[in-house]
Amino acid sequence: MVKLICIVGARPNFMKAAPIIHQLKKNGSSMNIKVKLVHTGQHYDKVMSQVFFKDLRLSQPDIYLGVGSDSQAGQTARVMIKLEPVLLKEKPDLVMVVGDVNSTLAGALTAAKLNIPIAHIEAGLRSFDRTMPEEINRIVTDRLSDFLFTTCQDANLNLSREGISKNKIYFTGNVMIDTLLSLKSKVKSLKTWDKLGLRQNNYALLTLHRPENVDNQKALKRILAALQEIQKYIKIVFPLHPRTEKNIKKFGLNRKIKNLKNLICLKPIRYLSFLNLMMNAKLVLTDSGGIQEETTVLGIPCLTLRKNTERPVTVTKGTNMVVGTNPTRILKETLKVIRGKGKTGRIPKFWDGRTAQRIVKILEKI
Ligand code: UD1
């Protein structure tokens, strides 16, 4: 019997852990692998956490650490301090961490110091930009991991270049796409766009939450300048991340945003509704990592408002374009999409809904 502890903490982790947990239960391999779910509490608001458990049919976490928000070091340290006694008590044979958030890094560091083997789901992605907290999390987590499950071939290459043994790398595909594909048909009937008074295939969906875009007043204002122009051509729907909402208030930009008549701001929305909005959008404007991948699979043009991406396959194969944050460039590329000249693409290898099956098959042999 293998005792597995899976650690999640923030919104994008839940979609990645869910298919693996479901697969373990479905296989009955839970007889050989006993999984416990630990939620660090990095994200704690109902709309950022509990609603996802419901949408993804995940049972409640076995252990909740309740760390909450803090500085980079504070949050990472608090997860480690609270997780260590849990791992000492549970004595797992393997700790599984997903993605690149602070809970991922803290989980890997705590396990490594207790000599517990680590599996990292979504290993090897690199933006080569160490100003991003996620890049530090990715590099250190991969260095400490024993089983590195990758989503694409460029991730394998990154890991090999960093000297990580090929024996540890498993190219199994994109597990988040398992979640998307399993819920796609259920989501079709939701018509979230209709409920918001939007026309199908005739609105832009926007998300922003990267510190480099929303913690800095100048950067946020530059993006707003682009939105001001774009909303003259197409309605924009904008579910606000709590970080973004707080900064809009802090920088006194509330009124400016309210004055943009075709910019519809929403509270964070549940996974199923977001998927419905994404599937029916003309285009997506985002600084998220996962959304670049989801739009590629859905065939929806995506403009990434960042300098770089750790997911280059979404650009070389998919519908993604990294456009930066220059307002003129953002408007130019948006207009191209509106005029029917958006990027089309192909679906990368193993983004096929069967990644969890492949991962569990490997886990069963451990
Ligand atoms: C984190 C991840 C990021 C991921 C994002 C998805 C890190 C370093 N960053 O960024 O990679 O893309 O999650 O959402 O791990 N807040 C709330 N309620 C919550 C959670 C957060 O109000 O439930 C607010 C707090 O003010 C907090 C801020 O949002 O300070 C940021 O939260 P945090 O978890 O530190 O980082 P994210 O920006 O969410």
Radius of gyration: 20 Å
Please give the order of strands in the largest beta sheet: 3-2-1-4-5-6-7
User: SSE order in H/E notation?
Assistant: EHEHEHEHEHEHEHHEHHEHHEHEHEHEHH
Termini Cα gap: 10 Å
How many discrete domains? 2
DSSP strand count: 13
Mean model confidence by pLDDT: 97
Bound molecules: uridine-diphosphate-N-acetylglucosamine
The CATH superfamily of the largest domain is identified as: Glycogen Phosphorylase B
How would you describe this structure to a colleague?
Helix content is 47%, strand content 16%. It has 366 residues and is α/β, with parallel strands linked by helices. It folds into two domains: 2-174 and 351-363, Rossmann fold; 184-338, Rossmann fold. The strands form two sheets. Strands 3-2-1-4-5-6-7 form a seven-stranded parallel sheet, sandwiched between helices. Strand 5, helix 5 and strand 6 (147-150) form a beta-alpha-beta unit. Helix 4 runs parallel beside helix 5 (133-144). The radius of gyration is 20 Å and the shape is globular. The N and C termini lie close together (10 Å). It binds uridine-diphosphate-N-acetylglucosamine (UD1). Residues 10-12, 42-45, 48, 69, 100-102, 133-134, 209, 241-243, 246 line the site of uridine-diphosphate-N-acetylglucosamine.
